[in-house]
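Board notes (copied after class):
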Amino acid sequence: MDFVRARLLEDQLKGTMIGEWTIVRLIDHGKSAAVFEATNAAKQAAVKVFDKELIERFGDKTQLARIKREVSLKGRGHPSMVEILDGGYDEGTKNHFIVMAFLPGSNLKKRLKDISIEAIGGFIADIAACAEYLESLDLVHRDIKPENIQVSEDMKEVTLLDFGVLKPVKEPGITDMEGVHPFIGTLQYSSPEFLLRE
């Protein structure tokens, strides 16, 4: 979803409710979704609204299965993993969505030049520990990259985001088609064994 389409979606959704969340403003966008700041009576959140073209390409059933997999992380957590709060399909706006904890700051891609050399080792350790936590649940993230890592405003913490291509270890399924080994992830951040599907 490009910036223009994300802004059009913001114009449509601002002030409306998705689930129990009122959309406030656009925070960011990526190739598959736009992320909005949202509130309810109790707290602030980030609501990820998926691109309808993506749904048309892969199908409603596939997208709902991906969302269900993300929502399975609700109530589970790691200090370096974004908290998942809710997700599903909103009948009112006709959108597929995921609700996450709102995190001030911006992604690592935008802040990379500001990261001190001294902080790099700790950030890598934190993201690796989060990936290890997911593996303890027999899950693999499959798309760890700077755009999917949030850096806190004080530049002291990193948080892994975006579990859209989360996959159980050794299980084919909703993001791998039977008999075909499609590439899932981001090319420039993938290991050779993953690129070769080994």
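Comment from the instructor: DSSP finds six helices and eleven strands in the chain. Residues 114 and 198 are 36 Å apart (CA to CA).
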